[in-house]
Amino acid sequence: MFGTGFDLFLAAVCAVLAVIFFMGKGKGILDAFSVRKLERKRTPEEQKKYEFGFGIFCVVMVFGELLMAYAKAPWVSGAALALGLADLIFIGWYIQKF
Predict the structure, then answer these.
(1) Backbone conformation region of residue 44, classed left if phi is above 0, alpha if psi is from -120 to 50, else beta
(2) pTM score, two decimals?
(3) Which contiguous run of DSSP H or E holds residue 94?
(4) pLDDT, tens digit, for every residue of 13-54?
(5) How far is Cα 16 from Cα 12, in angstroms, rounded to an integer?
(6) 49 vs 53: CA distance, rounded Å
(7) What is the spatial distance between Cα 62 and Cα 70, in angstroms, rounded to a whole number?
(8) What are the b/e assignments for 19-52, b being 16+ CB within 10 Å?
(9) Is-contact 66 54, C-beta < 8 A?
(10) What is d(CA 90, CA 86) in angstroms, rounded to the nearest whole number?
(11) 57 C-beta neighbours (distance < 10 Å), count
């Protein structure tokens, strides 16, 4: 988007977030970005499911950013856009399911 450095920076941020979510330490991040304050607390199993879903989301975003950073073919922007949209559809489906 803005250059290779920016894409690598976003990939690194998403990779760090993915590690945090997969380690099970993402409660604070999920609470900070929740749209509304929860009336009830999440159960530990709900928390694990959310963290796993957002971990997968971040890993897919890392691949999309690396694709944008290193592939210079004309189809790359369309492929990265399709990957991002598929990732958003996945996280929406995953959250509705659980």
Answers:
(1) alpha
(2) 0.81
(3) helix 76-97
(4) 999 999 999 999 988 888 887 766 666 777 888 889 889 999
(5) 6
(6) 6
(7) 12
(8) ebbbeeebeeeeeeeeeeeeeeeeeeeebebbbb
(9) no
(10) 6
(11) 20
